[in-house]
Design goal:
single chain, alpha+beta, three-stranded antiparallel β-sheet, 1 helix, 3 strands, 23% helix, globular
C-alpha cells in the first residue's frame, strides 16, 4: 500500500478469509462498486487475482491495485 503525498514505505498485508467473511466482504464491496466506482477490473490467472479500481470515498478518490495469491480451490478447514 502506498499513499500519494506521504513518505511512508510501501506496506503489504496478509489476510486469511473464511467463506462467511468472503461472502460478507463481496456484499459490501458490491454496493460500493455499483454506486461509487468508475473502474472495477478483476483478472484471474492460475493462483493469482489482480484487481484494479477507482472509487470515490467521501471527498477522496481511492485508486487500488491489489494482487491476491492463493489456492482458491481448496476447501477451508476449521482449526
Amino acid at each position: 500500500m502506498t499513499m500519494e503525498g506521504r513518505s511512508l514505505p510501501p506496506m503489504g498485508m496478509q489476510q486469511c478469509v473464511d467463506a462467511a467473511t468472503d461472502k460478507q466482504m463481496n456484499s459490501i464491496g458490491g454496493n460500493m462498486r455499483q454506486e461509487q466506482c468508475s473502474k472495477q477490473d478483476m483478472q484471474k490467472a492460475g493462483n493469482t487475482i489482480v484487481v484494479d479500481s477507482v472509487c470515490k470515498v467521501g471527498q477522496a478518490t481511492a485508486t487500488t491495485h491489489a494482487v491476491i495469491t492463493g489456492d482458491f480451490n481448496t476447501p477451508i478447514r476449521s482449526r
